[in-house]
Structures are given as structure tokens and as C-alpha cells.
């Protein structure tokens, strides 16, 4: 799948499911939203960029503390739904934009954020380059995404499971892969935290699949996994139904040199 195909899938997927992502408990809630404010200590004068804003949850968390937030997304339908839900925040501006080709001048923003989105980017190295380019010197970059473990079998499994569930998924990288990409662009890690993130399996699968057959394919793939995989992803069963799984999640704060 080439870059254009990957981005078309993202637009199709998020356009069709825009409302689900705005109201998704996984995206709308979470201690990581509080950590964004706690770790970055945003200032009233700041202009912030939220890349691939989705349901706008990061933009909403930061808006009360800063001057302006530019919430960007590749999918116009997603931004339209998000803007309706966030009408109470006039300091948020919405821009249709590609994370790998941002329509902003160099050194524009005091902080750049990207939460639960980068696994959809076909060229993560270009995303890292763009995030650094639009960030002011000494500016902050706050990054959250699902990541893959270093174990090759476990990494291949979670990426295939994600693609079965969501055709717009490209790849979860490891924390070391992300560190290398950001370091190359002059973005140095300040602090980070790795954790397991629990997904209610049925809601997680239904949010992106289109048919019952697709749901069954994802479920079967999970159930057919070996014990090592089931234990690592903490498969939780109730009778004959998967209740939840847990995936690796990385929260990291960087500063541009």
C-alpha cells in the first residue's frame, strides 16, 4: 500500500466514523489528558498545534490554558464534527492538514502535540521532521501513541490485529524507533512513561469495522493467538466473549533544541 492509498483509507475511515471518535471513551477520557497539562505547564501566551486532532480531546484539554490552539486533521468530516462539539472554545481553530506536510511556517508554535494518531502515518520520519520544523526553538512536543514491543512476534501480531480491525492502520513503532526519529530532528526527550492501556474489546472492534463478518475475523485472530501472545496482551474473557485486551502505550514529552 502506497502513501496516497494509506491516506485515502484514513480519510474514508475517519470520515465514516467521525462521531464515534468524538464520543469514544478511549479517546475522550484518560489520565494522559491531565498529564499533558501537568507535564507541559502551558502558558497563556502560547500558540499550540494539535496534529491529527481527531475528536479534539487534546485541543480541548489545552484550550483553557493557552492563547490559541490550531487543531489539524486530514479528514474534513472529522474536523466538522469536532468543531460542533467544541463550540464553547473559540480559541480553537480548525485546519485540514496532512501531518506529513503541515501548512505552517517554520518556528510557529510554542508547543506541538499528537495523541493516539501517529500509527496512521505512512511516513513517520516525515511527520517527525514537520513537527520539529513548525516548533519554536526550545518549544515542547508532547507525543502519545500505541507502540509495539521489541519482541518481533508480539509486534507483528499487534500490527496485524490493528490492520484487521482498522484498514487505515499503518504501523505501531517501538519507543526506540520513535526516539531515534525525533532525536534526528533535534527533539530531545524530557520525560516519558510506558504503560498498558486497556481496551474494551467489543467497543474497540465495532468502532472501525463495517460488518459483523469483519468483527468475527478480528475476534478469531485474537482467539487463535498462542498463549504467549494472549498473556502479553492480557486477554480477558467472560464465558465465550473477549471482554478486553491491553496494549502498549507511550507518553513522552520532548523539547526542541
From TrEMBL:
Alphabetized UniProt keyword annotations: Methyltransferase, Transferase
EC number: 2.1.1.-
Biological process according to GO: methylation
Methyltransferase among keywords: yes
Domain Methyltransferase type: 49-143
GO molecular function: S-adenosylmethionine-dependent methyltransferase activity
EC category: transferase
Protein name as annotated: Putative methyltransferase YcgJ
Amino acid at each position: 500500500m502506497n502513501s496516497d492509498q494509506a491516506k485515502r483509507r484514513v480519510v474514508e475511515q475517519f470520515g465514516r466514523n467521525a462521531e464515534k471518535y468524538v464520543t469514544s471513551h478511549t479517546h475522550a477520557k484518560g489520565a494522559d489528558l491531565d498529564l499533558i497539562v501537568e507535564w507541559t505547564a502551558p502558558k497563556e501566551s502560547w500558540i499550540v498545534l494539535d496534529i491529527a486532532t481527531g475528536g479534539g480531546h487534546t485541543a480541548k484539554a489545552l484550550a483553557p490554558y493557552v492563547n490559541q490552539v490550531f487543531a489539524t486533521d486530514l479528514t474534513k468530516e472529522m474536523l466538522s464534527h469536532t468543531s460542533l462539539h467544541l463550540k464553547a472554545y473559540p480559541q480553537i481553530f480548525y485546519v485540514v492538514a496532512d501531518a506529513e506536510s503541515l501548512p505552517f511556517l517554520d518556528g510557529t508554535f510554542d508547543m506541538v502535540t499528537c495523541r493516539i494518531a501517529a500509527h496512521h502515518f505512512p511516513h513517520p520520519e516525515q511527520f517527525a521532521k514537520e513537527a520539529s520544523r513548525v516548533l519554536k526553538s526550545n518549544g515542547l512536543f508532547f507525543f502519545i501513541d500505541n507502540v509495539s514491543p521489541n519482541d518481533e512476534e508480539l509486534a507483528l501480531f499487534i500490527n496485524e490485529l490493528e490492520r484487521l480491525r482498522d484498514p487505515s492502520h499503518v504501523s505501531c513503532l517501538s519507543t526506540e524507533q520513535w526516539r531515534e526519529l525525533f532525536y534526528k530532528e533535534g527533539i530531545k526527550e524530557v520525560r516519558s512513561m510506558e504503560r498498558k492501556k486497556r481496551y474494551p474489546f467489543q467497543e474497540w472492534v465495532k468502532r472501525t469495522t463495517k460488518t459483523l463478518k469483519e468483527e468475527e475475523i478480528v475476534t478469531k485472530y485474537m482467539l487463535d493467538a498462542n498463549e504467549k501472545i494472549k498473556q502479553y496482551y492480557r486477554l480477558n474473557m467472560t464465558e465465550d466473549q473477549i471482554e478486553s485486551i491491553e496494549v502498549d502505550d507511550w507518553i513522552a514529552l520532548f523539547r526542541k533544541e
